[in-house]
UniProtKB/TrEMBL annotation, chain A:
It is a multi-pass membrane protein. GO terms for cellular component: plasma membrane. This is Na(+)/H(+) antiporter subunit A. It comes from Engelhardtia mirabilis. Residues 640-704 form the MrpA C-terminal/MbhD domain. Residues 714-793 form the MrpA C-terminal/MbhE domain. It holds the Pfam family MbhD.
UniProtKB/TrEMBL annotation, chain B:
Residues 113-152 are annotated as: Disordered. GO terms for cellular component: plasma membrane. The keyword Calcium does not apply. Coiled coil: none annotated. Keywords: Cell membrane, Membrane, Transmembrane, Transmembrane helix. Belongs to the CPA3 antiporters (TC 2.A.63) subunit C family. It comes from Engelhardtia mirabilis. It is a multi-pass membrane protein. This is Na(+)/H(+) antiporter subunit C. It is found in: Cell membrane. The keyword Cell membrane applies. Residues 113-137 have a biased composition (Basic and acidic residues).
Amino acid sequence: MFAILATLALAAFLAPSLTRWAGRRCGWILALAPGAALAYLVSRLPAVIDGETFDATVSWVPALDVSLDLRLDGLSMVFGLLITAMGVATMIYAAAYIGDDQRLGRLNATLLAFMLAMLGVVLADDVITLFVAWELTGITSYLLIGYDNHKFQARRAALQALLVTGLGGLVLLVGLTMLSWIAGTTQMSAMSAAAGSVQGSPLYGVVLAMVLVGAFTKSAQFPFHFWLPGAMAAPTPVSAFLHSATMVKAGVYLLARMQPVLGGTEAWHTTLGVVGATTMLLGAVMAFPQRDLKKILAYTTVSALGMLTMLIGIGTSAALVAAMAYVVVHALYKGPLFHVAGIIDHETGTRELSSLGGLRRTMPITAAIAAMAALSMAAVPPLLGAYAKQLVHAAEGEATAAAGYIYWTALATGIVTTSVAVMLAVLPFWRAGRETPKQPHEAPISLWLGAGLLATLALLLGPVAGTTFRPLVDAAARVAGASPSELHEETSLGLASTSHAAEPASAGALEGAADQAHADADHGAEHGEHGSGTLLKLVTIATGVLLVWRRDALLAAVAPVGGLARFGPEAVYRLSVIGLKSFSGVLTRFIQNGYLRSYIFVVLLATIVLAGYPLFSDRAPLPPLAVLDIRLYEGLIVMAMLMATLFATGTDSRLAAVVALGLIGIGVAINFMIMGGPDLAMTQLAIETLSVLLFVFILHRLPRFEHFTSLAERRRDLVLSLMVGAFFTSLVWGIATEGGESALSPYFAEHSLSEGKGHNVVNVILVDFRGLDTMGEITVLAVAALGVFGLMRLNLDKEKKNGKVA
Amino acid sequence: MVTWLAMLIGGLYAAGFYLMLRRSLIKIILGLAIFAHGANLMILAAGNPRRVDVDVKIPIVPEGAEQLLQPYADPLPQALVLTAIVIGFGLQAFTLALAKSVYDRMGVDDVDAMRDPDLTEPPTRRDAQELVSHEELDSVAPAALPGTAVGS
C-alpha cells in the first residue's frame, strides 16, 4: 500500500520534467501513476468485498503512540477507486485541456500530489495521519484553485477555500485529538469498540461539534458552502477532480468513518439531517439561476454533498448503503458533466448558458456523454443513478429526526435537480444554435475519453447494479456501521428483482429489518407513499421541465430576493477577513511603528515591570549594609561623573556635551583602575581620546541641539529613565548580595602562565583562551571601519558631483 | 564599593536611555555612548568587584610565581569588558559616520522628519524654498479660492 503512495509521490516529483519532455502527450504517460494505483485497488477488490482488510504500518512518533497506519477496507476501497479512476481521467484530460502552457508541468505535479494526499486521507487509519493528509489536500487544492495566479479572482478564491477548509481542519485536529484521548487510541479502526465510552463522555458534544465543523467545511455544507462555487475559478480539470469526486467528498468520508464511533445519537441524527437537508435544498435552488455552466455544476455538487451528509445522518443501514451508492453515482455523472463543461468552454470559448445552443450537430459525442450523465443525474432508468436514487428514497423514509423537514426538502430538491439536469444536458445541445466566440467543433479524444468511459460505466452498471455494484457498496456501508444481517437480507431480496419495479419490495424489506417499533408506526404511511411513487416521480420531472421552460420569467420574478445574498455566510466570511486584516494592520502599525524610541520605551517598560517585580518582591531595594562603605576619593569621582552625566544630558551646547562625555569616559577609566584593571583603564583612556576627537570632528558639521519633543514627552521619558536607573541600581545591589566567585576564573588564573605563556591573565584570555572571540571582534571592527570609510567616501563623491554641477 | 558603583551605573543608564528616547539623531548616539559606559561598569560590578591594593591584586602573575596569587581581581569580566570597549568604539564611529551622512543627504537631524520620502536628496537652498512654497500653496489654495472670489 505504501508502494502506491510512493508511486504517486515519485510521479509528482518527476511530473515537471516529464511534461517538458513529452509535451502534450504527457497526460497519457502520467495517467499511468493513478492507473497503477487503480490496478492495485481492483486486484484487492474481491477480497475487500468479502470483508477482508489490508493493513500496513510504519512507526512514526512512537512516543506519542502515533504511527503511519494505512488500512484498506470497504469504505477506503470505494473512495480509493473513485480517486484513482477519476485521477486517470483527469490526468489525460488536463494535459489536453491546458495544452501548451508553460505551467502544465506544475499543474500535473500538483494534481498528482493532491491524489497522493487524497489517497492518504482515505487510507489512513491513524487520526494524526488522517489529519496530515487532510491538510495536505487543503494546501494542494489551494495551489490548484489558484492555478491562474495572475488573476485576482483565482487567488482570492484559492485563499477563501484555504481559509475556510483550513480553519475547519484546525478545529478537526482538536476534535480528533480529544476523541483519541477519550477513546484511548489513535487508530480509527479500534475506536468503534470505544464508541460507548465516547458517547457517554461529558465531552462528547464538544468532540462531535469539532469533528462536524471539520467535515462540514471540507464538504461545503451550509453555512460553509460558499467556498465551493468560488473555487470554480480553478481550471476545469481541477474542478472536475477536486470538486466532484475527491476533495469535497473527504468530509463525507470522514462522517462515514466516524459514524460507528460518534453516530447513532440524537445530536448526530438531528445535526446531520438538518444541515444536510438544508445544504441539499440550498445548493439545488442556487444552482437554478446560475448562468455559468461550472457554477451550476458547483451548486449541484453542494446539493449532492448535502444529500450525502443527510443520509449519513439518518444512519440506518439502508441510509448508509444509499450514501455509499450515491457517492459513486455522483462521481460518475458529475465528473463527466464537468468535463463536458470544460469541453464546451474549450471549443466554443464560453461557458455562459445563454449563449450556447445547437451543439449536438457540431459536437455529437460530447452531447451523448452529457445526455448519459444528465440522465443518470435525473435518476432515469436504466442508469446507475436510478438505482442509487431508489436506495436514497427508501432511506429518506427511515429518518427519525427531522423527518418532515427531510421529506419536503428532498421533494423540492428533486424537482430543482431535474430542472438543472435539463439545463445542463438539453439547452446547450438541443435548442436552436447560437453564436459563440469560437467556431465550435468536436473535441479531440483525449478530452472526451475519460468522461465517456465514466458515463458509459454508469450506463453499463445500471441494469446489473444489484449483482455488480451492490456488493462493493455494502462492504463500504458495513465499515460505516451498517449491520451485516440487515444488508444480507436486503441484498438477497434486491437480487431477486433488480429492475425499477423492485423499489417498493426493497423498501418494504428494509422496513421489516429496521427497528420494529418505528417500523410499525410508519408502515402504512410508507406503503401509501410508495404506491404513488411513480406518479410522484412523473410530477417531479414535469414540474422540473416546466421550471426550465419558464425560467426567465421565474428568475425575473424572484430577482429582488437575490439581494439577500449580501447578508449570507459569504458576507460574514468577507467581513471577518477584512476585519482581521485591518485589525492586524492597526496592531502592526501600533507595535511595529518604525519609531526607535517607542520600541525602546516598550522594552524598558516591560523590563521594569517583568524583571522588576520579582526583584523587588524578593528583597527590599536597599544596599546591603556590608557594602555601605564609600571612601572620599571614590565619592568625589562618582559625584563628578554623575554631574557630567547630568550635564551631557541637559546641555544645549554640542561641545559641552562632548566634553562631558569625555569626562564620563575618564571617570570610567579611573573606576577600572580602582577595581584592579590596568589594561581596561589604559584601553578606556585611549579609546575615550579617540572618541572625543571623533565627536569633535563630526559634531561641528551637524546641526545644533534642538528640542523636537514637547515638555510633556520629555517629562514622561525622564520619569521612565529614572525608573530604569533605579531598577539597575537595585539590580547591581541584588547581584552584590548574592556575591560568589566566578567558577571560571580560577582556571584562567592557574593556567595562564603554564599554558598560555603569559603573565597578564586578561591578555592571555583575550588572545589565547578566547582567541576566536577576539578574532570575531577584529572582524567586527574591520567591517565597521569599512562602513565608515564607505559612508565618508559617499559624501565626498557627492560633494564633488554637486561641485561640478554647480 | 558596590554601593556607589550601583548608583553610578543607575545614573548612566538613566541618562543613556533618556537620550536614546530623543528624536535628535545625535542625542541618540550620545545616549548610546553613555549607556555603553554603564553597561561596561555593570559587567564588572557583577563580577564581585573589590578595591585593588587594598583587598585584591591586579590579575598579573608576578615574576617567579607559577600562577595568580589569591586574592586577585577577577580577570574574566575584565576580558569581556575590554572587548566591549573596543566594539563600542567601532559602533560609535559607525553611527557617527552614518549620522553625518544622513544629515548631509537629508538636511535634518530629527529622526521623525527622516521618514519623509521627499528628503532622499539633500535639499539645496533653492529646493528648500520650492518645498516651502509648494506646501504653502497646497495648504493655502482651498481656503484662498473663496478669498480671491470675494476680493475680485
